[in-house]
Amino acid sequence: MEKRVIFKGLWLPLLLVAPQMVITAVFFFYPAGQAIWQSLFIADPFGLKSQFVGLGNFEYLLADPFYRASFLTTAIFSISVTLVSMGVALYLALLADRLIKGSGTYRTLLIWPYAVAPAVAGVLWMFMFNTRVGVVAWYLGVLGYDWNHVLNEAEAMGLVVVASSWGRISYNFLFFLAGLQAIPRSVIEAAAIDGAHFWTRFRTIVWPLLSPVTFFLLVVNIVYAFFETFGVIHTITSGGPQQATTILVYKVYSDGFVGQDLGSSAAQSVILLGLVGLLTIIQFKFIERKVHY
Amino acid sequence: MKRLSMSVLAFAAATGLAMPVQAQTEIQWWHAFTGRLGELLDAQVAQFNAGQSDYKVVASHKGNYSETLNAGIAAFRAGEQPHLMQVFEVGTATMMAAKGAVRPVYQVMADSGLPFDKDAYIAAVTGYYTTSDGDMLSFPYNASTPVLYVNRDKLTEAGIDPDTDLSTWEKVGPVLDTLKAAGVSCPLATAWQSWVHLEGFSAYHDVPFATKANGFDGFDTELVFNGPVQVAHVAQMGQWAKDGKFIYGGRRNESGANFRGGECALFTESSAGYAGVKKEATFAWDIRNLPYWDNVDAAPQNTIIGGASLWVMEGKPEAEYKGVAAFLDFLSSAEVQAQWHQDTGYLPATTAASDLTQSQGFYAANPGTEIAGIQMTGKPPTANSKGLRLGSFDQIRTIIDEELEAVWAGDKDAQTALDSAVERGNVLLRRFEQANK
Lengths: 293, 437
Hints:
Chain A is mainly alpha-helical. In chain A, 72% of the residues lie in helices and 2% in strands. Chain A is built from 12 helices and 2 strands, in the order αββααααααααααα.
């Protein structure tokens, strides 16, 4: 039987949820509603005139092969960022978990990159890999590799993935480490006494017990890769070369603030809104089933 | 500041002090300049404010060009627009289309009663910002044009006479071969590839960039920069890129660092890059005219400008526009223009400023600084060389950048890339036309 605490009356509960509802309404429902409304119009930037076009903006977008290609670019980018940042973080967390001495220092150092804003991280990586003056590019040149992410699409994608994952590793590391330390030692020790090696222990005990943390990070990281990597892409590649690193959210910016095409930009926001909603539903419906709480 | 003057006013009223008859009218000016340029701009404002007591210009930095434009648009929608806004040249069509949001400069000047002679301005500079009839829509504040910077030491190193003629691409070709053979890692580089090698290039060779006089005669313009002259040039550049003779560094002026650092031999860049090169270069260098193709009969026509102009925003009390006019009148004076030209490398907007700079001996003391002016004014501008007026042009430039990158990377040939850029750009032009119907 489920236990429920039930408030008497109606006003107190309403009052208690009101702040959250107001925040959601002001910062989510209102702007989202505006975006949906604007997506039905073609307007000039100064707001002097606008024409109702119905779903015209969506037709215009979906007819654009570059916009359609941007979905694939976004998928590759988001999956790569999620895998790289979670994979490296888990590896580091496993190592840190086994440390006896100096784990505090190790942890502190690993958390630092999280404090660096995405745009600043972007500038750092851009300078390191700058094709003409970058330190890393120069050393690669010495080794005989001609690094040129301004023209090479795969290198550009690799660079923005690494730069976007870098700061994120710290965040994921924190959660993985906390998750690992919450696993009872006795269970692992029992398995060790039974002769299970590290890898077996990881596969059969640690990984399943860690799954709530992994699931949470999966959701959060995909949302991060979709929306918060704008600064990195803007500073390093501006969506180029050709449109190799133009992810959906970058195109929203570029059409809205470079092209001043608010109708198209709003329509893209609506599509993005639907897409992320869909992804979250899929994650909670299908992946969450495999999670052991 | 405003709040302070308000409280001073309230205090004065409350204590019954005698008020001065006229209060200073504030003129808001939003701009995109930082660093040295920002300091020079502030100095101009201070000079204007000190020179008279009716108006006070307040200059505010609002980020880079795109950010300043967006800030101005957002402010206009909220009814909080400044009087004056600095808008980069690619935003010209956007501003011009905003009837009811901007007030043409010629009208502001005519209403003010101040003397305003449009013939005093250099046509090649103001042309970008005038109507087809020659009426000035915005004030050409900072205008530059592409020129060729030469690292003389690199030429000498490769066994080339540093005074060798580089006026045409036909003559540049063999020089690049020699440089490459001598092991120079960066024979040729460029900044702003679309501006220099397509926009300026088309004007310089008197071929159209877009129909309807490059968009001056209507929003129903279409891009046509995939003609044989442009294709031949981009194909040659692509070949040089493939051979390691043209080194692509990025869409903006990233390669400037390599030229100033002494790595590149030839560098096509804005004339406003002069100050930076002068400050940093530790080698012998000079400025030449932008090379042209000698086999194109019309070349050299004139190159077009880049930079920004000042737009007057609508919706302010009528009396304040007199202040705006007074400030524009101040900026037009030969002394202010000449000083600005000499400090920054931007082109003078008036003939008087150019003559004053000449008579002050500036060109003689700083060889190369006169090249941009000569290149701009050599011939009277044609419909192909007056400028460009295309909607969504900032984004069209991005499309051009993408397609040119495909050529430099060897993914596409010049014709395919330019055809594709034209096709994609036309979609944006139709979109802009529809939004501004």
